[in-house]
Design a protein that fits this description.
elongated, single chain, 6-stranded mixed beta sheet, 29% strand, Helix Hairpins, alpha/beta
Length: 207
């Protein structure tokens, strides 16, 4: 399974705001309509009940409009999802191993780190697996999250566009110290990243 963001949290935020906006409009509209009918058809104004016959036009509108709104929400959500269907050839791969209650990030040179270091302006592919229970790698600043499951490799793909340090959390309850399963993704310049890889590679050779 692949989960993706193109490095712009605004994409996810705009989809969320669109869905929330529609929900608020529907909530307000339905509430106003209910209050209107409460007063219009109050028992004091309608002493004798009358049969209300259906309207094909109104019923059609009630079906068509919600269907269009639901499809539009699906469409915008799918636009964000399909961005991750094509991984560029120059993507950088990191293996991720989750265990209670820790993250291990394993680089192409075999170095193992408890903090994720990645170069800026690069598509990063995390190949993730769990050694025990189900975990979930969550980077709030990037608006991305993916379950990490035992016996299965899931991929999480993102592109880095800003230098800095960002929190990584486990978003799936995994036991006693679940709340302490925090680390960081550190985005650095590509030259610094390459030099860091060379240094840790040499350190591995001396072991």
């Amino acid at each position: 399974m692949v989960s993706f963001t193109d490095g712009h949290p605004d994409v996810v935020d705009s989809i969320m705001l669109y869905i929330v906006g529609i929900s608020v409009v529907l909530l307000v509209g339905i509430t106003i309509t209910m209050i209107y009918f409460v007063f219009k058809y109050h028992r004091k104004k309608n002493l004798e009940p009358k049969n209300i016959h259906g309207s094909i036009l109104l019923e059609s509108i009630w079906i068509i409009i919600p269907t269009i709104l639901a499809l539009s929400m699906f469409f915008y959500g799918y636009q964000g999802y399909k961005l991750g269907q094509e991984i560029p050839e120059d993507a950088y791969y990191v293996d991720v191993v989750a265990k209670t209650w820790d993250w291990d990030f394993i680089y192409e040179n075999g170095f193992n780190s408890d903090t994720l270091y990645v170069p800026i302006n690069k598509t990063i592919v995390l190949n993730m697996k769990s050694l025990d229970v189900t975990h979930s790698l969550y980077i709030p600043a990037f608006r991305i999250k993916q379950d990490v499951i035992q016996g299965k490799i899931n991929q999480l793909v993102f592109k880095t566009e800003k230098l800095g340090k960002y929190d990584i959390a486990c978003a799936e309850y995994c036991g006693l110290n679940h709340s302490q399963m925090y680390t960081q993704v550190v985005i650095v310049n590509e030259n610094d990243f390459e030099n860091w890889l060379i240094k840790v590679g040499k350190d591995l050779e001396t072991l």
